[in-house]
Design brief:
about 230 residues; alpha+beta; Ribosomal Protein L22, Chain A; five-stranded antiparallel beta sheet; three-stranded antiparallel beta sheet; about 25% strand; globular; enterobactin biosynthesis
């Protein structure tokens, strides 16, 4: 298969946030190392001993980042990873990359009022996986909101997991350190938004009580979440 056709653009989701966006699909079976060169993406040394799945998803994410940056007139930039594995974006740019089985997405912006941006895509968890992970994902005090969400939304735990991943990505540059899922809790929701409140002091700008909104979409067996921090 033509390596340039192995990562076709995907139109499953239309972002709710007004930022540059690109998504593609991919398969591990069609991956070859030569695709990095074909797409003009540098092959990082840290992937030398990586399994095919890791290489394919890394490349897919960087292809999406490359196209998203081009949509705000930034070309020829390589998005490397820091020691914390977070992507390092060009000066003045906030961005986020996400991938799951067979789909990758990137979003970025040069908006000077934007402090952080986080996106996440997930495939719905199976029942057994949900039962195993529920206590790790939910804050003890958000069970009531979770029950309400489960009455209106399929796979609510996957949705909350994805939302908290997006929150983490959006806030991490400002916090500068790891924080867990129990740092925020769901308080209410609408058909396309989840509203969380910070319950653990993350920084002087992110105190207990500050609310964070996450936008979400569901499509077939996928959930996509977006979070901006201004």
């Amino acid at each position: 298969m033509d390596t340039l056709c192995s990562y076709p653009q995907d139109l499953t989701f239309t972002p709710q946030l007004p930022y540059a966006f690109y998504s593609c699909t991919f398969t591990n079976e069609h991956y070859t190392d030569s695709q990095f060169t074909a797409h003009q993406i540098d092959f990082p040394a840290k992937l030398n001993n990586a399994v095919t799945k890791r290489k394919a998803e890394f490349l897919a994410g960087r292809i999406c980042a490359k196209h998203a940056l081009q949509r705000i007139d930034i070309k020829g930039v390589q998005i490397i990873s820091g020691e914390d594995r977070a992507p390092i974006w060009p000066e003045g740019i906030k961005g986020s990359i996400t991938h799951t089985q067979g789909i990758a997405i990137a979003m970025c912006s040069g908006d000077t009022g934007l402090k952080g941006l986080g996106i996440d895509v997930e495939r719905f968890m199976g029942d057994e996986q949900e039962q195993k992970l529920q206590t790790q994902i939910l804050h003890p005090e958000e069970n009531s909101a979770f029950v309400s969400l489960s009455l209106t939304t399929a796979n609510p735990l996957t949705l909350i997991f994805s939302a908290k991943e997006s929150i983490y990505k959006a806030l991490y540059p400002s916090v500068g350190k790891f924080f867990g899922f129990d740092a925020v809790k769901l308080i209410n929701f609408t058909s396309n938004e989840l509203n969380f409140v910070i319950v653990e002091q993350l920084s002087t700008e992110l105190p207990v009580g500050k609310q964070i909104t996450v936008r979400y979409q569901l499509s077939k067996n996928l959930v996509f979440t977006e979070c901006e921090y201004k």
